[in-house]
Amino acid sequence: MPHHLIRKLEQFTKLSRDDRQALEAAAAKRRSFAEHSDIIREGDDPAYVNLILEGWACRYKQLDDGRRQILSFFVPGDLCDTHIYILREMDHSIAALTPVTLAEIPRSILERITNERTRVTKALWWDTLVSVAIQREWTVNLGQRTAIERLGHLFCELFLRLRGVGLTEGNSCMLPLTQVELADAMGLSNVHINRTLQELRRSGLVALKGKRLTIPDLDALQKISLFNPNYLHLEHDGRHLDADEPTSP
Amino acid sequence: MPHHLIRKLEQFTKLSRDDRQALEAAAAKRRSFAEHSDIIREGDDPAYVNLILEGWACRYKQLDDGRRQILSFFVPGDLCDTHIYILREMDHSIAALTPVTLAEIPRSILERITNERTRVTKALWWDTLVSVAIQREWTVNLGQRTAIERLGHLFCELFLRLRGVGLTEGNSCMLPLTQVELADAMGLSNVHINRTLQELRRSGLVALKGKRLTIPDLDALQKISLFNPNYLHLEHDGRHLDADEPTSP
DNA sequence: CTGGAAAAATAACACATGTAAATTAACTTA
DNA sequence: TAAGTTAATTTACATGTGTTATTTTTCCAG
Predict the structure, then answer these.
(1) Residues in Cβ contact with B61 at an 8 Å cutoff, skipping those fewer than 6 apart
(2) Contact A139 B144 (CB under 8 A)
(3) How many CB pairs under 8 A join A and B?
């Protein structure tokens, strides 16, 4: 069932049958969360490593006066901090944006994998390094890019990440985010997100309809967003990764 | 010589004499960099893990049109990405802000430590997790905080990090950064950094003179910056950490 | 010391984005 | 299918921060 994770890791390195089974076994303990519920809260003691199986979640942090920053989006196949249990308490929260099913991987199992499965361990390290690179790229996004570049950049990133786990269809993918959530992620007001989305639509760079995002010309969107995919470290250029159809129509 | 790193790690866990010696040995290969030179560039193949021994450095990323975002500051005791060699190429650059001495730790030695020294490995994981938490906090900083909160927050963070490695004197520490560098780190223009610094000075929250930062009332600065130190995971409350004198005068 | 470069400070003006409030559209669910 | 709720859109206006250019100060090398 953690096939999205396995698929993602296999972008980096081929795994053996045993490796895959070890990951299957690790993800045995399932749990479901309702839309908008907190999966874990700032201050909590992190007991498990969460692996998103279905649905979207986000990491966020709330300031004392209520301002909220969304720090990352989690999609199927994403691990929430491989070694988080080393810390005494969470410094941020994780919430379900849609109904979510996840696997709670106990520390002991992860430690066993680390001791016994070099390939998997290395692939998990790769995944961790990419997550951190994504966090850095968000810092660049908030610090340097204009509103339209920022949103465009986010859409490019999400599309490529989803394609990496086989969750795109042609040039479109799900995008179950409200404008308020986009605003909290991009450090902009919801009003300005609305304006910016309209500009992106008007220029034909994206289509957004009923929680579905379509990017007619990914290269063009990457260009205006100053998007460079190198930080995703997709070493096998990603051609073969679309589940349903070839990239060009 | 990597005593700053050792001191930092011992905030998290006590190390044995052997552990410390292993770290000493790992840092045998030294290298120096001139002020403003690049230590490693985006696109390079990362061969070593760099450990800053002396001086300040920064991680940065440059957009095609020249805009630059500083992503983190490195001070003595900081490791630049413990497992970076897993990636094929760097997705960002690292530059010396002052003259820098660092140790190039080869992959093989780090792997040996990981296999033989549980304590050190765990402490390095803690350090990695804290670095990532800092990156997240920078995202919050750029996304949600106003100019004055942002700068105040940065100063609180740097002061506490330096205190953790014994590089503060009373309520002051070095701050070898130009206003342009501060601007690139905070996603603000240098003009606005100047305005904001003046406001911080006028209100008596910080004093800045000749590359030295003084924070007369850390609590007050934390308050106006909405600074919550939990993300630094200083589990031993940090009282005893000042090198020269007790925290209160 | 002194000249020259880098850094900091100042000034005037522009504009991207925020705020607040009201309206319309899109879903849910009884 | 209609009520009720949430999300999206629109409008008008305010403001924080950016831009460009100039001046002043600080810092060093010679």
Answers:
(1) A136, A137, A140, B42, B68, B69, B71, B91, B92, B93
(2) no
(3) 118
